[in-house]
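Re-run requested by the PI after the first attempt was lost when the workstation crashed. Everything re-entered from the original request form. Ligand of interest: adenosine-5'-triphosphate.
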Amino acid sequence: MEALMPALDAVFLAPFRDMVSLPDFLIQVIWEGFVSGILYALIALGFVLIYKASAVFNFAQGIMVVFAALVLVSLFDMGVPAWIALILTIGVMGILALTIERVVLRKLVNQHEAILLMATIGLTLVLKGAGQLVFGGEPKTMITEELGFSTGSSDWEVFDGIVIFQHIDIAAAVIAIVMVAALGVFFSKTRIGRALRAVADDHQAALSVGISLNQIWAIVWFASGIVALVTGIMWGARSDVSFALEIIALKALAVLILGGFTSIPGAIVGGLIVGIGEKLFEVYWGPLFGGGVEAWFAYVLALIFLLFRPQGMFGERHIERV
Amino acid sequence: MFYREAGQFKTTYADDQALLPIAQDRVGLIIVLAIAFLVLPIVASDFFLSSIMIPFLVFALAAIGLNILMGYAGQLSLGTGAFMGVGAYSCYKLTTIFPDLNILIVLLLSGFFSAGVGVVFGLPSLRIKGLYLAITTLAAQFFLEWCFIRVGWLYNYNDSGAIEVPQRELFGLAVTGPHATPETRYLIILTIVAVMTLVAANVLRGRIGRSWMMIRDMDIAAELMGVRPLYAKLSAFAFSSYYCGVAGALMVFMWLGSAEVEAFDINHSFLVLFMVIIGGMGSLTGCFMGAAFIWVLPVILRAIPPAFELDILAATMEHISSIIIGALIIFFLIVEPHGLARLWRVGKEKLRTWPFPYAT
Amino acid sequence: MSTALDEVQTPLNDNTAVASEAAPVLLSVDNVSLSFGGVKAISDISFNILKGEVRAIIGPNGAGKTSMLNVINGFYHPQEGRISYKGKTRKRMKPHQAAASGIARTFQNVALFSGMSTLDNIMSGRSLKMHRGLIWQMLHVGPARNEEIAHRQFVEGIIDFLEIAHIRKQPVGKLPYGLQKRVELGRAMAMQPELLLLDEPMAGMNLEEKEDMSRFILDLNSEFGTTIALIEHDMGVVMDLADRVVVLDYGQKIADGTPSEVQANQNVIDAYLGVAS
Ligand SMILES: Nc1ncnc2c1ncn2[C@@H]1O[C@H](COP(=O)(O)OP(=O)(O)OP(=O)(O)O)[C@@H](O)[C@H]1O
Ligand SMILES: [Mg+2]
């Protein structure tokens, strides 16, 4: 009993005492978590766009982020002005979307979702190999300032301390919010957007709007290519542009479990939960385990969550039929 | 002309249920085994044995492990690398705690630890299906990787953080450690892989294997026919993880000699996954084909530039092989979802009817 | 025609006679209600199935017939009511327990193991009858091998009975629909059930196929005494096969009796003509 009390204290009480005693630090930790949560959410968003319209679980979303960022940076390195490089990169993502639709997806219509998932794993390998072949494997620096983002920071004095906000992080948050809002408008107000929603429920309905399935697929892949580009810029600005991101992007899977595969708000909420949760856990509980718990927190959280709500946060429970 | 089953009539169900009902296949297998056991150890170079054959056998065994789970029981796993790690670390702990225990027994025992861990991470499969299950195995992958780093006890608190394979002998012959010859290591691993493949084939064609496939194809119907999902799924996880665990132990003890956590990272999980997809899900032969292909292709590609005195970096060839493998995965999924193994079978069908392509 | 099966099948129950009034009750459903969220699929239904009879369950689309079978073999759990089977009453049962106690079924939308051959599909029905443990299976010698061969023999009997020997080694996924339904019946037969639940076994079949299927069902019932609960839309088939019929509509029981009684029942006529709604 005597030995148990300190252990219980260390797990259940001490972290909270730490939080309260240094509130400015707590705010800083939450902010850091918030920002990485937004990046997870953006990757998850790319997944959701594609899954909603085509039931393809796009494993390649992570590598698309790296790929987009690399194209952008490399074009700039070749002497193309930043903004033109940005536009060209969007063009490249468009071509990529069309190619994927033509070469891969069109051939795999109506296949089991596991087959489609594996096809995107193959795609990941191709993009990874091609990216490294063309752009080299070493990390690159994102052209943050050239694109007009401030790299400075602002201090906020609270609770006798300061919290530092990197401007790029603020920009990331704003852009993410704008992008989600734009997608919301796109899905509810435009003809193509409504068709996209329809196609998720009923392929025939979408066809009656006069848009072919192939076009819709190309569009969603293009849209998530753009989301990938934005993610890549934000991510690159915080660390650098490298293939290591691919592994981190797997955390978006955990986000999707929390938020559901088809819900845009779910992706955002899930991303924030994972981002903030893992930072808090790492900082306040990590030392108990010897640190490094960020590597698995997201997955274990998703796993525990699944055990209690297999249908996801916003999903409805349904009974299988035979 | 020669590949015919004409005249080979099965008169009993026992014959019909044999592993290789066609005589030419049996002869073929015997020839392959004879080459593997008798010819290669004598004629092959040390490089060929230790850098090609041994890794190939390790990965083939791991691929069998994953294929049992994925191809036969229909449960997706992205944690193969970590399960191999559990086997490797268990083997290391066992042999350092009990140095006198026969190393073969240690190798085979270590699989039970990964089987146990596999069952624990397989528990969620009772409530979670398909893609959702992938997340469970990812949790296993990253959590176990973390353990391999943070739990110093696992590597006996070595400063390097690596497990170093000690020398172990069998009948006075060094079989592990720096003094073990490639021939010895190769023959041991070959024997283990051959026996374990036979055992897998036996299990897969019996009641238990059938119950896995029933769950895979239609879990509801399987349960309505008396298969208990709990037993079927967990036994698949246990069996599969056992194979992966032994493969991991063999990888470190018979091939690498020492290993850190990187040897069991997620990239290795994917590597084995690719072998299964390319080789063919639900095929044991495919596991060997996939392993050979994925392991040997990069080796060959790396050897091309020097052979033609081209000035291409090894890394470049690495990237090219990544593109080729990725493209092949897509190709197989589109054209031949059952992988190399099916191509092989189709090829044999053609041979059977040659030279009359329309005779059946 | 079914001599092959005769040799290997040891009838589970020896009352080969068609059910009479005196036959004991095999299964009884008492006041069962089942709903999904707001939808009431079954409300307060009671009926029984006598040992050895062919009991038809009919009704318009969405009446709750399939749900009723799902309740009987434990796939759905009713909110209210009880099920008694072979004298034992239970409120909740897992599907595999139902299977172990001798209830087998086929499905409205064929639910075969699509990646397996016809032979393996039917062999899968023997799962519960095979007992050799893992070690024997791994070695596949002696008892395990003998067991496998004995069951193979049994299954070959069914294959002959259903006249599907020519597709023995084919993967079922590619078979025509009618044959798939037949394989599914074979798989259920392999379980040697006491109670066989058939969910629209003849849907989508042509006349000839229907006749074959009817013949199999009748033979199964008369030669091996298997009790059968049958959902079927084709009234002609029901009249020919069934000993008694229970009629459902909108989750309620509207009639229960012999085929001719049911056919004359005003409620039934109304339900089928859509007057009741
Ligand atoms: N798993 C489920 N979830 C939700 N509702 C269900 C489920 N299963 C059945 N239902 C509903 O219960 C009602 C009865 O369905 P059921 O399938 O039992 O009808 P049925 O009589 O078999 O019809 P049919 O002749 O079309 O096969 C229907 O309204 C159906 O939508
Ligand atoms: Mg029905």
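Saved to the shared folder this time. Chain B has a mean pLDDT of 87.
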